[in-house]
């Protein structure tokens, strides 16, 4: 449980940091979304989803359901990010940060499913 919470805190930190430019309406983020054939209006929505997942991970010490919900949101949002990076030709290197976080979220989710506490 302690290892899961440490993993969740790392996820929370990384997601919160990734969300900041999106929530601030960074023009570079809007341009990146346009290059990925996504509406620039989605920038703040994705940022809000990342902050929500970060909050769930931060509070996951109190409930494994919060950890599960944070993992599911992270898998959804970053799964799309990985796919868009690969479609844009950025390769695994371009998607590596998202891949790393998806791996941690998947480990956290698996741990909550297999553990009793």
Entry summary:
This protein is mainly α.
Tags for this model:
about 120 residues, mainly alpha, 5 helices, globular
Overview of this protein structure:
The chain has one domain. The chain is 82% helix and 0% strand. It has five helices and no strands. α3 packs antiparallel against α4 (64-87). The longest helix has 24 residues, at 64-87. 29% of the residues are buried.
Mean pLDDT: 95
N-to-C CA distance: 7 Å
Overall strand count? 0
Q: What is the number of independent domains?
A: 1
Helix count equals: 5
Please outline the major beta sheet: none
Global geometry: globular
Give me the secondary-structure category: mainly alpha
What is the string of SSEs from the N terminus onward?
HHHHH
Strand content: under 5%
Low-confidence stretches: none
What is the radius of gyration computed over CA atoms, rounded to a whole number of angstroms? 14 Å
- Relative helix content: over 70%
Task: Describe how the helices and strands are arranged.
Blueprint lengths: L1 H22 L3 H9 L6 H17 L5 H24 L3 H24 L3
Helix pairs in contact: 1-3, 1-5, 3-4, 4-5
